[in-house]
Every structure is written in structure tokens, then in C-alpha cells.
């Protein structure tokens, strides 16, 4: 795990996978964090092989206030792989951002899995720059660990 000193604080700049021997049926859990502005943003990614991906993003309060899901559109026609169905399963805070991010992740990963995303931030964090940096850190992690997705 690599850390760097930023503004006098140690910040985890890499992901750490949980010991694979404790995971069954190929399920893999990865956790990492990024300091964005004055907030420490935590990420937990649970990968179910060939089925779905669950991504929780939040702060140290570790709550789950919303959940959005995107899945590929199943159609007998020759529909484009960029067509997705998405919905918010529960929650009101950041539900639009969670749904939007789940569609972006689905597109990035080729649209072959269901993507669940829960974005849990304080209500005063509703600014586009913070959300953009959160998204950028997630896609950087996906890019660096492409083989796992």
C-alpha cells in the first residue's frame, strides 16, 4: 500500500484487496481512499464474477443513503451495447449522481454487467467539482486495475 504526505496528512494512494482466501465463489473486495479537498473519500468495490459490480463511495460515517443500478438492455434486436436501463432503488440524496455514475461505469466496462452504485456524501458536498474528482479517482482506479474488471 503506498501513502504520500499531503497537507500534513498521510493519504492512501493505492487500493488494497482483501485476502482472496477469505473470499468465496470468486467475489473480490477492494477498498481504497482519496483525499479530495478537505474530505477523505472512501471507496469499496465488490466484484461478483460475470454478474455485477457494487461500488460504495462515502465518508467515514459509512452510511448507505441511496442505491442506483444500471444494467444492459436485453433485446432481441441488434441493439447497441451502449443502451442501458437504470433506476434508483432507494434514497433521495445524490440519487441522480449515483445513477449517472452507474451508467458511466457500465459504459466504461463494456456494458456486460449490472452496476450498483451508492454515493454517500454530506449534503453540503453537492458541488460539481467534488463529484467530478470523486468520479475521476474511481475511473483512475478502474484504469489501473483493468484486469480485475
UniProtKB/TrEMBL annotation:
Database matches in InterPro entries: PAC4 (IPR032157)
GO terms of biological process kind: proteasome assembly
Pfam families: PAC4 (PF16093)
UniProt name for this protein: Proteasome assembly chaperone 4
Organism of this sequence: Rotaria magnacalcarata
Amino acid at each position: 500500500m503506498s501513502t504520500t504526505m499531503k497537507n500534513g496528512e498521510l493519504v492512501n494512494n493505492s487500493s488494497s484487496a482483501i485476502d482472496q482466501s477469505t473470499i468465496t465463489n470468486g467475489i473480490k473486495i477492494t477498498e481504497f481512499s482519496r483525499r479530495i479537498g478537505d474530505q477523505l473519500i472512501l471507496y469499496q468495490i465488490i466484484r461478483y464474477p460475470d454478474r455485477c459490480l457494487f461500488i460504495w463511495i462515502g465518508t467515514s460515517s459509512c452510511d448507505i443513503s441511496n442505491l442506483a443500478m444500471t444494467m444492459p438492455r436485453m433485446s432481441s434486436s441488434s441493439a447497441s451495447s451502449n443502451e442501458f436501463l437504470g433506476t434508483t432503488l432507494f434514497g433521495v440524496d445524490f440519487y441522480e449522481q449515483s445513477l449517472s455514475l452507474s451508467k458511466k461505469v457500465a459504459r466504461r466496462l463494456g456494458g456486460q454487467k449490472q452496476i450498483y452504485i451508492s454515493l454517500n456524501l454530506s449534503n453540503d458536498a453537492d458541488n460539481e467539482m467534488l463529484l467530478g474528482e470523486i468520479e475521476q479517482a474511481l475511473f483512475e482506479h478502474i484504469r489501473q486495475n483493468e484486469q480485475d474488471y
